[in-house]
Amino acid sequence: MQNESDDDLSPFEQRTVEITFPLVPKAASRMLDSKQEFDYRERREEFAKWLLLEGKDTRDIEGYSQATAKRTMYRVSYFERAVWEKKDEYVPVMTIEHANQYIEGLAYSDKSQSHKHHTLHALKRYFKWRHHEFGEPEWEPDRAFTVSNSQKPQDFFKEDERRKLRQTALEYGTIPSYKTVQTDEERRERLKPLVAEYHEKDVDDVGTDDWADIPSWKVTSLVWTSLDAGLRPVEVGNARTGWVDSDNAVLRIPKDESAKNEANWEVSLRRKTAKALNRWIQEREHYPEYDGTDALWLTQKKKPYDSKQLGRLLRKLCDIAGIDTARRDVSWYSIRHSVGTYMTREEDLAATQAQLRHLRPETTMKYDAAPVSDRRDALDRMG
What we know:
A hairpin with a 4-residue loop joins strand 1 and strand 2. Helix 5 runs antiparallel to helix 6. The N terminus is likely disordered. The chain is mainly alpha-helical. It has 2 domains: 146 residues, no CATH class; 169 residues, hpI Integrase, Chain A (Orthogonal Bundle). It is built from 17 helices and 3 strands. Strands 1-2-3 form a 3-stranded antiparallel β-sheet, covered by helices on one side.
């Protein structure tokens, strides 16, 4: 018997594609037994490959980007799980009736227009796949949802701007100069060991010239943590030293100290950020204003930060970094929106939901629009 050669395979079978995102969300896995999960994974893999290889245009064989495919798969799984819950059983293939009922319920829900709009389009891709690959009927939904600009994130910092902010924050800030502590003996004596450690000399050998330009980790740790965790202004003000787990590079935010008192949160940090936080926690022990408080960061007036003070700091950092903020609605939330936008692109909406501490998945959905740079790359590929 003659072995099957590549010539015997269909063009679709000859093409391969790497899937860079999880096929089975944890929420789906928890609802399935091992055999059902095997079946579900196989079906999801077929759908993912189709999206990536030819989902955008089956005639010209053009697929979606990994980011768009991830977002589509996430939304479809959300829909599938809703059907399973309603039927109280695993349903391997969604039907047009399922979709119509789901969208009708969605239309009258309090979920955002953005969530409704993007869910509808994800489901349309699912049924386009079922039609193209299995000859099932196409789905023409009766509903349509539009997204207003007010529901999209504010201006966010682009990737190169995030790098500039991170570098500027690294180089920004020094401990108080000798002149500012000259008449405050307690403050001066508390800071002396820090100066001595920096210059690697005995405390008794510290002179007035040694106080100049010694870097502080306060602003560095504050900005780096916000660039990782997307901290809201109120979270910067509420932040406590007990949140910091530098060994595991995470913030552990208790429910009663979180911004909306909704849940306990565990937020990932870069290893460098965790080390910067550790440096700052050691440094803050030398400042009398932190005695008797576990506040992680305080202003020069010994008060928690708020949006106004953070806005001033951000504008100063942007000026130093050469980041143009003219004709842009830039605020501390722009850092948070950049985390949401690029976390969604690099991972998925589930990762963004956890990182930004959203209790409701639909709150995270506004970050599923591809950044301008991604859309520009798409235009270049389109010709």
